[in-house]
Amino acid sequence: MTDTVQRPTASLTRKDFVSNQEVRWCPGCGDYSILAQMQKVLPELGIPREKIVFISGIGCSSRFPYYMNTYGIHSIHGRAPTLATGLACVHPDLSIWVVTGDGDGLSIGGNHLLHCLRRNVDINILLFNNRIYGLTKGQYSPTSRPGHKTKSSPMGTIEQSFNSLSVALGAEGTFVARAVDVHTKQLAYVLKRAAEHKGTSFVEICQTCIVFNPHEWDYVTDADVKDDSTLMLEHGQPMIFGKNHDKGIRLNGLKPEVVSLGSGVTEANLLVHDEFAEDPTLAHLLSRMGPPNFPTPVGIFRCVEKPTYSELMLGQVEEMTRQRGAGDLVKLYRQADIWVVNEASEGNGR
Fold this sequence. Notes:
This protein is of the alpha/beta class.
């Protein structure tokens, strides 16, 4: 923390979460918007700054801890979920945020990300997805779409891209959401809901790399087209979208389809969103939707309560302590065979 002055939690404002470090991202980068909303949301949570930690790996997004006036760790490539897991086990009272990118989190860090999600560690994971490697100057990433031409794929990438939300749901994520960097009101709402969730919250943020991939998210950010290409998810509400709110999503057998309201089609025929459904089938279906045939769903896909890793681990420790008493580290070290190597034996070559 750069500011050592302690203020009552109730009086904290956005300024209290702004560090004294110069923010250094490219002009127009979507990270500025995400940072601003995070600094705006944290005072609303009522959590003391000394109870908040930001952990990052490597990449443009990984500068985030420097710009937050909280505790922070700038770790190594892809390993932020590992550090966060250890910290959450030792200090389950902390609000821990992992800030990663599509490269850092889904390439070298993919294994760590998956196991953090399946364990339901009580942390918040923000994955900034710009579908490119920005810090290393424009190579394709695990989420770059097939055929995308970059410095490392001049003829177009031949790899199938990761769908990060499908990955998170496949790893049994208990809170899975998508937000857009410039949709500030919705982004703030998702961040607050993620912070309130007990367990691993995973938020993909569609973030624009203004230098190396500036048009990747135009269809969800351009004012002229976003209403017709974005489906805002609301729990308990039918799935309606479009500039005139005249389109919707319904099931045709086991497949979703886009329909126009009217001519016999009403809201009663549409899918209704249920973010609290224990069965993740609907969330999976939504995670697969997107251009060119469907709008891109934005909001909370799944939010269910399950025991956290820390709760289960500490429960086992408490039960074993109850059964066998407190552990004795010295006794543990000395319970096996021990021996002494002296200078005489070393000198004789034994």
